[in-house]
Amino acid sequence: MSTFNRRASKRRRRRPPQAFHAATATEERFLHQAIQNSKLDRSRSKDAKLEIPWGPVFFPTIEDMEGSPLTYIEKIRPIAQRYGICKIVPPKGWDAPFSADVNIRKRFSTKNQLLHRLQEGISFGDGEEYNPVEYQRMSSTFTKDFKAKNYPNDGIADQDGEVDEKARFNPDNLERDYWDIVETRSREIAVEYGNDVDTNEFGSGFPLSERGRCVYGTSDPEKEGLPESVYGTSDPEKEGLPEPEFGTQDYYRETYWNTNNIPWAPESVLRHVKVGINGINVPWMYYGTLFSTFCWHNEDNYLYSINYHHKGAPKQWYGVPGTNKDAEGLEKVFKNYLSMKMRDVPDLLHHITTMFSPRLLQNAEVPIYKLLQNEGEYVVTFPRAFHGGFSFGPNIGEAVNFATHDWIAHGASANERYRSFARPAVFSHDRLTFTMAHHLEDQTSYKNCKALLDELERVVQEELQSRKKLIASGVRDVSKIISLPKNRLDQLDEESADYDDKRLCHACKHVCFFSAVACECSHSKVSCLRHSHYMCRCPTERRYLMVWSQEEELTETLKEVGNHLDTLEKPQEAPVDISATLEALPVLAVGAEKDLADNKNRPISLEPYTAPVSMVPESHISSNQKPSEAVLPEVTTDEDKEEGSEDDVEVIAVVPPGGSAP
After folding, report:
1. At what angle do helices 429-437 and 551-567 cross, to 10 degrees?
2. Residues facing 88 on adjacent strands
3. CA 108 to chain centre
4. Does the pLDDT value for residue 2 go beyond 90?
5. Residue pLDDT, tens place only, 372-414
6. 378-381 and 284-288: which strand pairing?
7. How far apart (Å, rounded) are the C-alpha atoms in residues 498 and 615?
8. What is the phi/psi pair of residue 36, to 5°?
9. Is the pLDDT of residue 634 over 50?
10. Which strands, in side-by-side order, build the sheet including 293-297?
């Protein structure tokens, strides 16, 4: 072979020209959306500052803190709910002890968040696993490195004695950095977020009640041996004592401001839910780092939430009011920005993986407000209010849900929305409302009792009308032939929740609480009365109606609630549409000016939290160790991890034509 040919053979061969293919309509839409989003993201200057108004801040008195948080929240609700979120700053003397064992050896999982892709709606990957000490150290190191690289002259004055405000490591500048990364993707940064950490395994930051006020708090000997981190205790000698005074050790255990206790407060609807549901009536812990993000979402079942900041750097919160107009406005922005993604994932908002810029909301005239949450402060979110935010450094928080009696209408709206996405609710809305109807002693407000009655009437009317239509169409009524267990209505316990999980509609995932349609072709599939025509292609006569609550029981419940309503004092004037009479919100929300003044130039904590020596278990301290030192937790092996299991779906009932109950 000649030299020329050898060289030619090593050359990269030219590929033949590709035939031109016109882009499909879908590809064109993807390209168009990418271009439009890019214009939105990159149209801002690097130094552009978000001008977001502050949300309201409230300062309860010691008397307020010695009472129920639900009573206080109801008092501030007319103002706070208009913003979607609010901050509550306890009075001087509040010093809740941090009770979680941060030296525990067990590790929790984290989520790997790509900040520069948070607006794309992609799922988070798995981060590393850490125990609390390891995570705090990692977070502290990451935050310090970011500061050293980007703010080396923080607080240093020039030769004229002036300090450049843009060189300060403070919330204003970090907020600008965060949205610069998220909006323009100018830098690629990944962070690890320790969200939804199970307090059953890792403990709550609050001390646990000794009067049975946290989940399953009991003196029942059968409960002995259960993890104290969730179950607490119930000391009969303490149950009859007066409420502890503000600031005492017992106060922090027993106050309903304790996140373990608030779902069980006397005014809370969730006190009827006796099964522990992580993140709902059992708190979750949150271990954060610089820029770790809790993405846009509203709470399960449109519940209230309360978040307490235990330790560390502050958190930046954003909130949108929970009105239909404002919540739907955010959803519209979300759909427009990620329209192509939502073709494949219609319930993308429920995945809590997207953090689009407040600038997009402001451009769409959707109101948005912000809060800065420091150590020892609460943030409350209201029903259906979208919220999100991020951390400014290493921190530890804790959150739980609650519901007051005014929540009923919001819960009904959430229930309907979940059915439209075929998303199971965390608990049956129908079960909870009928359980409330069997605890009428809790209904002391005419307005709230009327709301409960209206919801019950709506549900029962649809139920009974649907039964008649199905039977008229040929579906067999076997309620006189088979005997099904009656619905338990004194409380929602573990057994009830397990049974509800076995009667989810195959189409919309709604709990078929009162009745369900089944077919001879399946031993496990059931349908709600709305969607029986989707369950199979069998003739109608092969289907049958299974009834747990007879018509007489339903109508009797309505009668009892109506009679109780008549005993309550009716307001003098008819209810008024509050939204039509509200004045425009002030430029600066109530309490915001005082809060800004109180926290002006407050430094951001960069150090990891370390437990006082008195809180370090003896197992973590060696015999030759100085009292002020603590041993690092050991690495957890895979053998220490527990594997989960799934319950099998059980057949509820199968009835042959003309047959009897099994």
Report:
1. 50
2. 58, 378
3. 19
4. no
5. 999 999 999 999 999 999 999 999 999 999 999 889 999 999 9
6. unpaired
7. 38
8. -65, -45
9. no
10. 293-297, 387-391, 315-319, 369-373
